[in-house]
Fold each of these.
Amino acid sequence: MVGLTGSIASGKSLVAGHLIELGVPLVDADILAREIVEPGEPAWEDIRERFGEEVLNADQTLNRGALGALIFADEDARRALETITHPRIAQRLMQYAQQYRMDGERWMVYDAALLVENNAHRWLNALIVVAVDPQVQLERLMQRDGLSTEAAQQRIDSQMPVQEKIKVADYVIDNNGTRDQTRAQVDEIFKQLMQRFNK
């Protein structure tokens, strides 16, 4: 299993999209996180029990805004949510991995923002980090999300610096250039991974 990560506005989605175009099985952590909290799922039941009906919408789906407001204001609440969701996400990931193996795939990519922060990169076979220069990152984030310089910088500063992620990376994609330049780097890494895992 190969991890794919980066910092906010680094261009991880561009890289993930191109890997999918190349035929690589890819699992997105954000999608797993949504799947495990669908109504009736064990994590949904635990969230309702821990946080109450006020974090649910009228149709019983999770009200992400209400839950987010709770956990960002309360460290204990955030940890409680992680205790509920993280093991379920890992379990769902393993289910996907097993299915891909049964389908004859030799390797897959796990796309997640916090791989290094959570030390999840330690159990991966390889790690790809998408990197951009701080000024490029700031400008892209401001443009993408319509943020002020201060607000964008605050979001960047809340994350682990990309240089720390690069230290543990097996492959680094420099996304300071054009989309075609980034895709060319992905193509090269794809060739290397195919050679590595398809022996």
Amino acid sequence: MIRRHIVVLAATLSGVAFAAVPVRDANGSTEERISRLERMVESRNQVQLGMQQQLSELELEVQNLRGTLELHSHKLEEILARQRDLYQDIDRRLGSGAGAVPAATSPAVPASAASNVSSADVTANVAYENAFKLLKNKKYDDASVAFSKFVADYPTSSYVANAHYWTGQLSYRDGDLANAKTSFASVVSKYPQSSKRAESIFKLGLIAEKEGQAEEAKSYFKRVVAEYPSASVAQMAKAKL
């Protein structure tokens, strides 16, 4: 009889002990699995954020290279234009009998050709190059200030559309969507011949997308494809669509 009570008591104690142990499976307790999943999700989010930042930096690097190419192309065009003016001036002088002009007066020829480029243009070009150097050297805050100042100081420069674009790019990089939108919109509306116009329209689409304006973003992407079908940015716009 006593033995029977001992067996029952032992079975009861065993059941209590068993109930006190948390439920486990082959991979650990449920709490451990949840904690492990949370760590995995957090790690993945950090990796994605890092990749996004790297992509933004790479995009800016590519834009820098394109800007350098455009800057060199612009300089080459100015040199060729000055050469054409020089040759035309020589032709006019020779055609009007200026060939009999004494040699002492010949230095006036290059001077007249050089006068086609005003001192204001030279100053504007230097200011733009200085701002672009800051951008290439990744001094983004200083570059943003320099480009904004360039827009204010040289509103008629041939580089002003590019300055608007770079101001927008730097604002977009910093998450300042309002100023980025203003700068890109200026390129689109004021400079229809700018080489930066297609990319500015695309960036307006990205900004609208970030702001949750899906239909507006879609209209910008469609506009890029319609107006610049052969541009490289059109392929990115198609992917967004």
Amino acid sequence: MASPTVHIESAEQFNQLLNSSKIVVADFFADWCGPCKAIAPLYEQLSAQMSQPNLVTFTKVNTEKQQQIASAYAIRSIPTFILFRDGKLVEKVQGADPTKLQSLVRQISQESQNAAAGGSGSSNSGGGGTGSNSALGWRGAGLPRGYTDVTDQLEIPKTELLNFDEEFGNVRVLFDSSKPGALNGGKKTEKDWVVSDTDEQLLLFTPFMSVLKLHTLQITSVADEDEEIMRPKVLKLFTNRPHNLGFDDAEGETPTQLIELKDSDWNQDSTANIPLRFVRFQNINSLVIFVESGEGEGEKTRIDRIRFIGETGEKREMGKLEKIGDDSGA
């Protein structure tokens, strides 16, 4: 039986696949790369198991023959695996690490299930609204008219969350495309939400893969049975920082926007739909979210999901591939 993996012969072919297949997985490799050869059988096995016409497509991109594509996605070491959804980069994994590749596979499985279930579900055009399922997954509030969910532009591997309790979820949980377990009803088997650790404060650094115009921030925080765990109340947003802030800096600096949430801001899906001062959130390449305090007298703060709503701006331009060194992730 022939392998379903598509070997990319041109940038045009690759772009056509990104447009025709809901989910595309790309293995960036080179013929001389030992680690690439070592993990290739596992990749082929996953391709055989998970490929679905027009839904999930596995591809291989030879970085020496397809330098234009490799440069466009900033491939600096090989092997590198990239997951695309609706033509947009969702996840990037570097190195021949079977554990990391299996983690990527779990995300592919989740993405394909969302898409197969009719991911283009309806969403409200108003700012309040209720949760919706779309190609980008679950949201706790509808979309403002004329704007889209741009959470998929987040560069997940470079995000950073400070002061979170490791007994609960980590930073990736915040941007999970699935509905929070606490809103699904029934018994919760995993703690798929974030809780602060030593006090009520959280510091989140979110870099983006393209320049954005941000219109709305959606934060989901399910009311916790533990009275010591609160919803966020006072937030400070800082734009275009090269890295995360320290807590002292976040408390002392003037934010791009200061937000104080009220009980009435939380809808039936436990989501606050926060409008941003749009003129201040043009040309955004990163956002720092500082949860300064919670809504009550507790000691910790909880967040289940975060979504960014707006529009994409500049895209990466195709260019020449820089020479790939020996940092092949072995």
Amino acid sequence: MSNTRNNGFTMIEVAIVFVIIGLILGLAFKGRDLIAGARVKNTYAGASKIQAAIVSFHERQGRLPGDGCNAASPATASACNGLHDGLLNTAAEQAAFWYELQQQPALLSASDRNMPLGQQWHLVSAGTNLGSNTPANWIVAGPDGTSGVIDVRYACELDNLYDDGNPATGNIRSSAEVGSGAGQYRQGDDCWNPAKAAMKTLAFRLL
């Protein structure tokens, strides 16, 4: 009498396969969350580094970098002898802002303008897109701060972790609206909800 083997899968084998698939999917989602979380922390760290460089420059020169500059690449700090009003609202002042921070002694490198979210930090003065009429300087994701350039879920997480969770107030703002729908967020939200995905702006207030 010959032994025969059933070529089909047993319930235990099928269960093991599903467990393995579940573990793989779980690791994939966990890895994605870790990457997203690292990008949020690195974005905040990058903005904080720029703010620290501004403080250091101000302590040495008595003004903000770029303030009063009439040229994008001033030969010396003393060449920026225009109006020192604390607002960097001309093209020359905004270009000189980055230039002066990268000169000797260099407080920032050129790569410090690069964001983990695939954009570059730019400088703007307060505008309606920032939800404030109060004069202030901001670093924004993208060239003008008016076009949606990052996933709103990152703005939501940054705002909730490091500010007030309201896109229209505080020191971290975006063009998102307050709410729980697509492209919106509010304080205490689950920012990684896929239904929130939309491209919005991001802004950090400077001194």
